[in-house]
Amino acid sequence: MNAPLLIELRTEELPPKALNNLGESLAAGVVEGLEKAQLISGVADYQVFAAPRRLGVLVQNVKPVQADQRMVKKGPSVAAGMKDGEPTKALLGFARSNQVEIDQLSQIDDGKQMVFAYEYTQAGQPLSALLSDILNLAIKKLPIPKVMHWGSSAYSFVRPVHGLVMLHGTETVAGSVLGLSSQNWTLGHRFLSEGRITFNHAADYAQQLLEQGKVVASFAERRARIEQSLSEAEQALHAQVAYAEGLLDEVTALVEWPVVLQAGFDERFLQVPQECLILTMQQNQKYFPLLNSEGKLINRFLLVSNLQTENPVHIIHGNERVLRARLADAEFFYLQDQKTSLASRLSRLENVVYHNKLGSQAERVQRITQLATAIAPLLGVDVNKAARAAELAKADLLTDMVGEFPELQGTMGKYYALHDGEDTNVAVAIEQHYWPRFASDALPDNLLGTVVALADKLETLLGIWGIGLIPTGDKDPYALRRSTLGILRMLMQHNLALTPLIQAAFDTFPAGKLAANTVSEVAEFMQARLAILLQNNYAQDVVAAVLAGNVENLGELEARLAAVTQFKRLDEATALIAANKRVHNLLKKVDISALPAMATTLLQQQDEQNLYQATEQVAIKIQAALKQQNFVQALAELTGIKEKVDTFFTNVMVMDENEAIRNNRLALLLFLSHQMNAVADIALLNE
């Protein structure tokens, strides 16, 4: 009879950052194995369990025995199996290997030829004969970077395993995995539960663990409970939780029975920049800081305990005591760092290696400063302020606070620059020159920050690429793809040209330091990344058409893409795209740079005269629209010459025997092509 199947591996504390993935992967592997063995009735329906000391899965509608299966073993082809009416050695050997007579074999078509085959019915195997192998295979497929051995056992897993449950309905499925025999019991919470928890039915697993074991076995349910408790605490304190990416998942993976508690710390620590305090609480202690309505840190925080007591005061005070020591360290670093100005630290950057092929951080700062002063005029930024911000941008790498918390580089530079009396915009630029830090992160919100951010990322990209450390596959240790994405987003926002900046960045390095083809390779790489970025919002052919136009000022891209997308919807678009492709193909056959200027006196036929006049008129309108960056109008003007283009190709032989006439007609098509592709290369659009 079909019944739910429960599998649980009871372990020592599993790595929290990998817990959920381990649970999902184990469950998926088990279900895949059951499906391949045809042991699941209907569509697979299963529940994943992942808690600090256990991984499990509950699969519904699992069969106790496989259905009988019709098996087919293919042998030699009919042509190779019979010669002159007699069976060959190949056919005799095939029959003997299957312990049957020749007349018990059938002939089937395998899709290529007729072959001999042995067809038979294989009795279905019981679940108990298959489950251990299915689970072992699922375990082997788990994404475990480093395994452990325990005791004298020859087995290995991400953490030592101490218990195995394999329960089908009410029946324990006999089997052995990782040296453990299956059973129908487990242990609950390390402190809140006592003794064994015996399961009478697989479906009772989660409920019994909850009630008897004080364990919320489902990762998703545990996470939801924590999130709900945090929300209730927020409302009670009229505050909001400062979530760090991944913190909620990590805390969920650390507790079996989550209890959210409130605690506090001395107000004096609020004099330290809140980013330091928040990072200390989140990263070191896995606490949830609280912010007021203005986004300012308050001296209260939330913690998630794995214990439930009538009076949690000792838990709260213990956590407060630990946090006090951490915050005192942060306070000490902050006060010590302020005794030395950022500017006075610059000489020490000469002793900090950036890369053995690219020199010290001091040399890098010189390059960033040179590039920043070149970019500043393009955005109307004061060159002296750009130089000062770039000069100080990396100075906080030598501070105690950044040494303890590298994530605060730039942020601490801002605070220390303000303390030193530097210009406010310079201080903000020091912080924001690292922006965007990741794909969806905010761009710098002031122009000075944009200047230094561009200089920093371009220097990194050109330098690392130029010494041969090019991203390959999923390997990108210097995050060049991320830097490229940030550069492109900033260039698009501020309508800047890409190629001159790549060259300017290359020129900041000493001659011969970087590979000679670095500029062209980086430009090609960035164009490819730009296409990927734009394809998030626009069709691939539209992106290809616009980028083929070699748009220099990237701020125009969005408008051009939108215009081309709208153009494709026009009734005339299909014919114009086809005509443009035909023009492309004709011009490919000649050296267009050698074509003479078009002469109206050589336009012999009325249809080519009409096309020239129409193109000349539309060219004026297109150029006027382009000056206004009205790309929709520029493309719309093309509809006015559609009929002239169609008639020209119907009645005029472009490749005339007379060379002068032929070249003149090609020159006319080149003139037409310039107008048709003024916004984008529409020949690349799908018709």
Automatic annotation (TrEMBL):
Residues 578-674 form the DALR anticodon binding domain. GO terms for cellular component: cytosol. It catalyses: tRNA(Gly) + glycine + ATP = glycyl-tRNA(Gly) + AMP + diphosphate. One of its GO terms (molecular function) is arginine-tRNA ligase activity. Its EC number is 6.1.1.14. Keywords: Aminoacyl-tRNA synthetase, ATP-binding, Cytoplasm, Ligase, Nucleotide-binding, Protein biosynthesis. PANTHER family: GLYCINE--TRNA LIGASE, CHLOROPLASTIC_MITOCHONDRIAL 2, GLYCYL-TRNA SYNTHETASE. Tetramer of two alpha and two beta subunits. Belongs to the class-II aminoacyl-tRNA synthetase family. This is Glycine--tRNA ligase beta subunit.
